[in-house]
Amino acid sequence: MDKIEKYRKAIKKVLEEHHEEEPVNSKYESQLVFDDERGHYFLMTLGWDEFKRTHGATIHIDLKGDKVWLQVDRTDFRIARQLQEHGIPKEDIVLGFHAPYKRPDTGYAVS
Asked: What's the pLDDT tens digit per position in 65-82?
């Protein structure tokens, strides 16, 4: 298995671990969106809280070249660490939600 295919599988596994089917009394639903052709992977949350619409990415990960870009992590689960636990080395993970000037201080890839 080549490196990118390994990364794809790891990303999907992490997202699947966080995907929850809509609970009986929940106002929100989660959806997994995988685009292997373009390298985009999302865990989305959507629903209504009375008159307020919720729709957005809870987790957004992109494959760019040979790097995994963690674009959004709105969880308390440290998704970057979970990607590492699934075999993606730190030097191949970019924390895209940090400004470029901050990335060298994160211990992860800069781009």
From this structure: 999 999 999 988 899 999
Burial of 19 (0-12, 13-18, 19+ CB in 10 A): middle
DSSP the chain: --HHHHHHHHHHHHHHHH--PPPTT-SEEEEEEEETTTTEEEEEEEEEETTEEEEEEEEEEEEETTEEEEEEE-SSS-HHHHHHHTT--GGGEEETTS-TTTGGGTTSB--
Q: Note the pLDDT of residue 25.
A: 59
Of the options 3.90.580.10, 3.30.310.110, 3.30.420.40, 1.10.443.10, the CATH number for the domain spanning 3-19+27-105:
3.30.310.110
